[in-house]
Amino acid sequence: xxxxxxxxxxxxxxxxxxxxxxxxxxxxxxxxxxxxxxxxxxxxxxxxxxxxxxxxxxxxxxxxxxxxxxxxxxxxxxxxxxxxxxxxxxxxxxxxxxxxxxxxxxxxxxxxxxxxxxxxxxxxxxxxxxxxxxxxxxxxxxxxxxxxxxxxxxxxxxxxxxxxxxxxxxxxxxxxxxxxxxxxxxxxxxxxxxxxxxxxxxxxxxxxxxxxxxxxxxxxxxxxxxxxxxxxxxxxxxxxxxxxxxxxxxxxxxxxxxxxxxxxxxxxxxxxxxxxxxxxxxxxxxxxxxxxxxxxxxxxxxxxxxxxxxxxxxxxxx
Length: 318
Ligand SMILES: [Zn+2]
Hints:
By secondary structure, this protein is an alpha/beta fold. The chain is built from 15 helices and 5 strands. The protein has 2 domains: 155 residues, P-loop containing nucleotide triphosphate hydrolases (Rossmann fold); 105 residues, Zinc Finger, Delta Prime, domain 3. It has a 5-stranded parallel sheet with strand order 2-3-4-1-5, with helices on both faces. The N and C termini lie far apart (56 Å).
């Protein structure tokens, strides 16, 4: 079977060598932006370990019972642990610790994939550290995170760290064209909007593409009182903050007379042109900074998100 993972070739080869030489570490930390493919590779790693077809280098056959069970989410030795609500909780870590001591049921090892581990509080992380210090020989923990900075140094040092990078725009655009039949000019737009993260591009495609989006109201609004209403919209879908930056970036490009290939929201370029005169270079730069700061504040601290978004909207409208 063809390697189902798109990109990350070096990481895949490294994991194949690891499995071939049976030098699988007790704990891994996969680091990289959201949607870049960490979870896909983690699942693939589990399949590499489980696959019953004995090949050199190890591959994933996709046909054996083990491969099929992983694909359908039914392998008893593979478990995903995801945040409940906004947090990965200490109760979930304790549950893992209870189970991990048992031998695997079908495979040579048990694999635990913990997603979004930056969302552990200190209590949960300290609890997990005990397992990272001495993981049972028959288990592998794969921690996934988009923000390694918030993890304790001791957590990081107990894991083998693999860094995941976004794909270059043209490479991702080619994948979108070849594999997902996206028209070439749309593929580039989508690849830029996704920041090279394939998962994001696919999500966007499933939502109907980045191409029918309307210019966000906050770019057009002039009334400060609208701030509170607009903040409410962002609260409902915080992921829009990232796309908001791409709109401001378009304004910046248009203001500087950059070539149209650089414009992400090319379908709205005429409307954006009409907005350019309202913005100074400094104001756009500050707007981008404000959105980044707010996003980081909400993701990495216990700030009241509603309040942070209201302050952000007020700043953007000024
Ligand atoms: Zn297989």
